[in-house]
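Here comes just one.
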Amino acid sequence: MGSCCFKKIALAVPINNDAGDGTLPLRVPKWKRGALIGEGAYGKVYECLNLETGELHAVKHIELLGTPEQIYREVYFLKKEIFMLKNLYHKNIVQYLYTEINNDCNGVDIMMEYVSGGSMRHLLNKFGKFEEPMAGLYINQVLEGLKYLHSQGIVHRDIKSANILVTQDGIIKLSDFGASKKLKLDFVGDKDELCRSLKGSPYWMAPEIARRSGHNFAADIWSVGCVMIEMLTGSPPWSSVSRTVKDVMELITSGQTPPLPLGVSLECRKFIEECLQEEPTKRPTARALLDHEFLKERMNFDNNSMTQAGKLYN
Protein backbone atom coordinates (compact mmCIF):
# COMPACT_ATOMS: atom_id res chain seq x y z
CA MET A 1 0.00 0.00 0.00
CA GLY A 2 1.38 3.45 -0.92
CA SER A 3 2.17 5.86 1.91
CA CYS A 4 -0.39 8.42 0.69
CA CYS A 5 -3.14 5.81 0.56
CA PHE A 6 -2.19 4.56 4.02
CA LYS A 7 -2.27 8.05 5.52
CA LYS A 8 -5.73 8.72 4.06
CA ILE A 9 -6.96 5.53 5.71
CA ALA A 10 -5.34 6.52 9.00
CA LEU A 11 -6.98 9.93 8.88
CA ALA A 12 -10.36 8.38 8.18
CA VAL A 13 -10.24 6.04 11.18
CA PRO A 14 -12.92 7.29 13.61
CA ILE A 15 -12.37 7.94 17.30
CA ASN A 16 -14.92 7.96 20.08
CA ASN A 17 -16.00 11.56 20.43
CA ASP A 18 -19.32 13.22 21.13
CA ALA A 19 -18.56 16.06 18.72
CA GLY A 20 -18.97 13.98 15.56
CA ASP A 21 -18.12 10.77 13.78
CA GLY A 22 -14.39 11.19 14.35
CA THR A 23 -13.30 11.51 10.72
CA LEU A 24 -11.29 14.32 9.18
CA PRO A 25 -12.56 15.73 5.87
CA LEU A 26 -10.49 14.96 2.77
CA ARG A 27 -10.75 18.29 0.95
CA VAL A 28 -8.81 19.99 -1.81
CA PRO A 29 -7.10 23.06 -0.31
CA LYS A 30 -8.25 26.42 -1.67
CA TRP A 31 -5.70 28.60 0.05
CA LYS A 32 -2.10 29.73 -0.33
CA ARG A 33 0.49 29.49 2.41
CA GLY A 34 2.56 32.53 3.36
CA ALA A 35 5.27 33.32 5.89
CA LEU A 36 6.10 31.25 8.96
CA ILE A 37 4.74 33.02 12.05
CA GLY A 38 5.32 30.45 14.78
CA GLU A 39 6.86 27.10 15.54
CA GLY A 40 6.59 24.69 18.45
CA ALA A 41 6.60 21.08 19.54
CA TYR A 42 3.17 20.49 18.00
CA GLY A 43 3.69 21.96 14.53
CA LYS A 44 4.51 25.06 12.50
CA VAL A 45 2.11 27.98 12.02
CA TYR A 46 1.97 30.03 8.82
CA GLU A 47 -0.02 32.95 7.48
CA CYS A 48 -2.36 31.87 4.70
CA LEU A 49 -4.71 33.50 2.23
CA ASN A 50 -8.14 32.01 1.61
CA LEU A 51 -8.38 32.05 -2.19
CA GLU A 52 -12.19 31.88 -2.11
CA THR A 53 -12.94 34.68 0.37
CA GLY A 54 -9.75 36.76 0.41
CA GLU A 55 -9.52 36.39 4.19
CA LEU A 56 -6.27 35.95 6.08
CA HIS A 57 -6.08 32.89 8.32
CA ALA A 58 -3.40 31.09 10.28
CA VAL A 59 -2.62 27.50 9.34
CA LYS A 60 -1.02 25.02 11.72
CA HIS A 61 0.83 22.34 9.76
CA ILE A 62 1.50 18.97 11.37
CA GLU A 63 3.67 16.54 9.42
CA LEU A 64 2.77 12.85 9.40
CA LEU A 65 6.04 10.97 9.53
CA GLY A 66 7.27 7.66 10.89
CA THR A 67 6.04 4.09 10.98
CA PRO A 68 2.36 3.19 10.45
CA GLU A 69 1.99 2.72 14.21
CA GLN A 70 3.49 6.17 14.89
CA ILE A 71 1.21 7.78 12.30
CA TYR A 72 -1.90 6.13 13.73
CA ARG A 73 -0.93 7.36 17.20
CA GLU A 74 -0.26 10.90 16.01
CA VAL A 75 -3.51 11.00 14.04
CA TYR A 76 -5.45 9.77 17.07
CA PHE A 77 -4.23 12.64 19.24
CA LEU A 78 -4.55 15.11 16.37
CA LYS A 79 -8.23 14.25 15.93
CA LYS A 80 -8.83 14.68 19.64
CA GLU A 81 -7.32 18.17 19.44
CA ILE A 82 -9.45 19.06 16.41
CA PHE A 83 -12.73 17.88 17.90
CA MET A 84 -11.89 19.73 21.09
CA LEU A 85 -11.28 22.94 19.14
CA LYS A 86 -14.46 22.56 17.06
CA ASN A 87 -16.62 23.10 20.12
CA LEU A 88 -14.84 26.10 21.63
CA TYR A 89 -16.43 29.52 21.17
CA HIS A 90 -15.07 32.36 23.31
CA LYS A 91 -13.56 35.75 22.53
CA ASN A 92 -10.37 34.85 24.46
CA ILE A 93 -9.86 31.55 22.60
CA VAL A 94 -8.42 31.50 19.07
CA GLN A 95 -11.22 30.34 16.75
CA TYR A 96 -10.92 27.03 14.90
CA LEU A 97 -12.10 27.16 11.27
CA TYR A 98 -11.55 23.84 9.47
CA THR A 99 -9.06 21.07 8.73
CA GLU A 100 -7.56 19.92 5.44
CA ILE A 101 -5.16 17.19 4.34
CA ASN A 102 -2.23 18.13 2.08
CA ASN A 103 -2.46 17.13 -1.57
CA ASP A 104 0.63 14.96 -1.11
CA CYS A 105 -0.79 13.49 2.13
CA ASN A 106 2.35 14.33 4.11
CA GLY A 107 0.51 16.25 6.78
CA VAL A 108 -2.61 17.90 8.13
CA ASP A 109 -3.38 21.63 8.08
CA ILE A 110 -5.57 23.14 10.79
CA MET A 111 -7.02 26.51 9.81
CA MET A 112 -7.41 29.00 12.63
CA GLU A 113 -8.36 32.62 13.17
CA TYR A 114 -5.47 34.94 12.23
CA VAL A 115 -4.34 37.16 15.13
CA SER A 116 -2.34 39.99 13.61
CA GLY A 117 -0.65 41.26 16.77
CA GLY A 118 1.32 38.06 17.24
CA SER A 119 2.18 36.44 20.54
CA MET A 120 2.73 38.02 23.93
CA ARG A 121 6.30 36.70 23.71
CA HIS A 122 6.72 38.70 20.49
CA LEU A 123 5.48 41.85 22.25
CA LEU A 124 7.83 41.32 25.20
CA ASN A 125 10.76 40.89 22.83
CA LYS A 126 9.74 44.02 20.93
CA PHE A 127 8.71 46.38 23.74
CA GLY A 128 10.27 44.94 26.88
CA LYS A 129 8.62 44.08 30.19
CA PHE A 130 5.11 45.29 31.06
CA GLU A 131 4.07 47.46 33.97
CA GLU A 132 1.50 46.08 36.43
CA PRO A 133 -1.59 47.68 34.82
CA MET A 134 -0.74 46.19 31.42
CA ALA A 135 0.11 42.80 32.94
CA GLY A 136 -3.18 42.87 34.82
CA LEU A 137 -5.11 43.83 31.69
CA TYR A 138 -3.73 40.86 29.82
CA ILE A 139 -3.83 38.29 32.65
CA ASN A 140 -7.47 39.18 33.31
CA GLN A 141 -8.31 38.03 29.79
CA VAL A 142 -6.10 34.94 30.09
CA LEU A 143 -8.16 34.01 33.16
CA GLU A 144 -11.43 34.63 31.29
CA GLY A 145 -10.26 32.22 28.62
CA LEU A 146 -9.18 29.64 31.21
CA LYS A 147 -12.43 29.99 33.13
CA TYR A 148 -14.26 29.08 29.92
CA LEU A 149 -11.91 26.20 29.07
CA HIS A 150 -12.15 24.73 32.57
CA SER A 151 -15.95 25.02 32.45
CA GLN A 152 -15.76 22.86 29.32
CA GLY A 153 -13.63 20.30 31.16
CA ILE A 154 -10.42 21.24 29.32
CA VAL A 155 -7.02 21.75 30.93
CA HIS A 156 -4.70 23.61 28.52
CA ARG A 157 -1.36 22.41 29.97
CA ASP A 158 0.84 24.78 27.95
CA ILE A 159 -0.01 28.32 29.04
CA LYS A 160 2.96 30.58 28.26
CA SER A 161 3.54 33.88 26.47
CA ALA A 162 4.27 32.17 23.13
CA ASN A 163 0.79 30.58 23.22
CA ILE A 164 -1.02 33.80 24.18
CA LEU A 165 -1.91 35.86 21.11
CA VAL A 166 -2.85 39.56 21.07
CA THR A 167 -5.10 41.27 18.53
CA GLN A 168 -4.58 44.82 17.26
CA ASP A 169 -7.27 45.88 19.74
CA GLY A 170 -5.52 44.32 22.74
CA ILE A 171 -7.76 41.26 22.96
CA ILE A 172 -6.04 38.15 24.30
CA LYS A 173 -6.52 34.81 22.51
CA LEU A 174 -5.31 31.52 24.01
CA SER A 175 -3.85 29.25 21.34
CA ASP A 176 -2.03 25.94 20.68
CA PHE A 177 -4.11 23.15 22.17
CA GLY A 178 -1.70 20.38 21.18
CA ALA A 179 -1.01 19.54 24.84
CA SER A 180 -4.58 20.03 26.06
CA LYS A 181 -6.68 17.34 27.71
CA LYS A 182 -10.43 17.05 28.21
CA LEU A 183 -11.47 15.83 31.64
CA LYS A 184 -14.89 14.65 32.70
CA LEU A 185 -17.22 17.59 33.33
CA ASP A 186 -18.17 16.12 36.70
CA PHE A 187 -14.49 15.99 37.67
CA VAL A 188 -14.08 16.69 41.39
CA GLY A 189 -10.48 15.67 41.99
CA ASP A 190 -10.67 11.89 42.08
CA LYS A 191 -7.10 10.60 41.80
CA ASP A 192 -8.18 8.15 39.11
CA GLU A 193 -9.26 11.08 36.92
CA LEU A 194 -5.99 13.03 37.17
CA CYS A 195 -3.81 13.41 34.07
CA ARG A 196 -0.39 11.85 34.51
CA SER A 197 1.42 12.47 31.23
CA LEU A 198 4.34 14.88 30.97
CA LYS A 199 2.92 17.74 28.89
CA GLY A 200 3.78 21.40 28.53
CA SER A 201 6.88 23.60 28.52
CA PRO A 202 9.33 23.12 31.42
CA TYR A 203 9.78 26.77 32.46
CA TRP A 204 6.01 27.17 32.94
CA MET A 205 5.33 23.62 34.14
CA ALA A 206 3.53 22.93 37.42
CA PRO A 207 5.38 20.66 39.90
CA GLU A 208 2.68 17.98 39.78
CA ILE A 209 3.18 17.66 36.01
CA ALA A 210 6.96 17.50 36.36
CA ARG A 211 6.60 14.79 39.03
CA ARG A 212 3.87 12.94 37.09
CA SER A 213 1.92 12.74 40.34
CA GLY A 214 -1.38 13.62 38.64
CA HIS A 215 -2.66 17.03 37.58
CA ASN A 216 -5.85 18.87 36.64
CA PHE A 217 -7.04 22.45 36.04
CA ALA A 218 -4.80 23.77 38.85
CA ALA A 219 -1.77 23.14 36.63
CA ASP A 220 -2.93 25.99 34.37
CA ILE A 221 -3.09 28.32 37.38
CA TRP A 222 0.58 27.65 38.18
CA SER A 223 1.36 28.63 34.58
CA VAL A 224 -0.63 31.85 35.04
CA GLY A 225 1.73 32.79 37.87
CA CYS A 226 4.68 32.02 35.61
CA VAL A 227 3.24 34.21 32.84
CA MET A 228 2.85 37.06 35.34
CA ILE A 229 6.56 36.76 36.18
CA GLU A 230 7.34 36.67 32.47
CA MET A 231 5.34 39.84 31.75
CA LEU A 232 6.76 41.79 34.70
CA THR A 233 10.40 40.84 34.08
CA GLY A 234 10.39 40.43 30.31
CA SER A 235 11.99 36.99 30.65
CA PRO A 236 10.69 33.44 31.17
CA PRO A 237 10.38 32.26 34.79
CA TRP A 238 13.55 30.71 36.24
CA SER A 239 15.71 32.73 33.81
CA SER A 240 17.56 34.44 36.67
CA VAL A 241 18.38 31.07 38.27
CA SER A 242 19.10 28.64 35.45
CA ARG A 243 18.97 28.41 31.68
CA THR A 244 19.03 24.63 31.32
CA VAL A 245 15.86 22.56 31.18
CA LYS A 246 17.40 19.84 33.35
CA ASP A 247 18.21 22.27 36.17
CA VAL A 248 14.77 23.89 35.96
CA MET A 249 13.02 20.52 36.17
CA GLU A 250 15.09 19.65 39.24
CA LEU A 251 14.15 22.97 40.87
CA ILE A 252 10.46 22.44 40.13
CA THR A 253 10.34 18.85 41.40
CA SER A 254 12.26 19.82 44.56
CA GLY A 255 9.43 22.13 45.60
CA GLN A 256 10.98 25.50 44.73
CA THR A 257 9.13 28.34 43.03
CA PRO A 258 10.53 30.73 40.42
CA PRO A 259 11.94 34.00 41.83
CA LEU A 260 9.32 36.75 42.04
CA PRO A 261 9.78 40.09 40.25
CA LEU A 262 11.33 42.89 42.29
CA GLY A 263 9.51 46.13 43.03
CA VAL A 264 5.95 44.91 42.49
CA SER A 265 2.97 45.88 44.65
CA LEU A 266 1.88 43.77 47.61
CA GLU A 267 -1.35 42.82 45.81
CA CYS A 268 0.58 41.70 42.73
CA ARG A 269 2.99 39.63 44.83
CA LYS A 270 0.09 37.94 46.61
CA PHE A 271 -1.57 37.19 43.28
CA ILE A 272 1.54 35.45 41.95
CA GLU A 273 2.22 33.62 45.23
CA GLU A 274 -1.31 32.20 45.28
CA CYS A 275 -0.89 30.92 41.72
CA LEU A 276 2.41 29.28 42.68
CA GLN A 277 1.21 27.32 45.69
CA GLU A 278 3.01 23.97 45.56
CA GLU A 279 -0.12 22.09 46.64
CA PRO A 280 -2.54 22.21 43.66
CA THR A 281 -5.66 22.16 45.87
CA LYS A 282 -4.52 25.42 47.52
CA ARG A 283 -4.38 27.33 44.24
CA PRO A 284 -7.41 29.50 43.42
CA THR A 285 -9.54 28.70 40.40
CA ALA A 286 -9.53 30.97 37.36
CA ARG A 287 -12.95 32.22 38.44
CA ALA A 288 -11.69 33.08 41.93
CA LEU A 289 -8.60 34.86 40.60
CA LEU A 290 -10.79 37.16 38.50
CA ASP A 291 -12.04 38.55 41.83
CA HIS A 292 -8.55 38.87 43.31
CA GLU A 293 -7.63 42.14 44.98
CA PHE A 294 -4.83 42.74 42.46
CA LEU A 295 -7.24 42.79 39.53
CA LYS A 296 -10.09 44.54 41.34
CA GLU A 297 -7.88 47.32 42.72
CA ARG A 298 -5.57 47.85 39.77
CA MET A 299 -7.70 47.16 36.74
CA ASN A 300 -9.94 50.06 35.90
CA PHE A 301 -11.73 48.55 32.92
CA ASP A 302 -14.73 46.48 31.99
CA ASN A 303 -13.77 43.30 30.15
CA ASN A 304 -16.77 43.80 27.84
CA SER A 305 -15.69 47.29 26.77
CA MET A 306 -11.93 47.48 26.40
CA THR A 307 -10.16 50.79 26.98
CA GLN A 308 -7.37 52.06 24.74
CA ALA A 309 -4.84 50.27 26.97
CA GLY A 310 -3.32 47.19 25.40
CA LYS A 311 -4.05 48.21 21.80
CA LEU A 312 -1.31 47.92 19.21
CA TYR A 313 -0.46 50.76 16.86
CA ASN A 314 1.72 50.72 13.77
About this structure: The beta strands are 31-40, 43-50, 56-63, 96-101, 107-113, 154-155, 164-166, 172-174, 181-182. The chain has two domains: 3-113, 120-298.
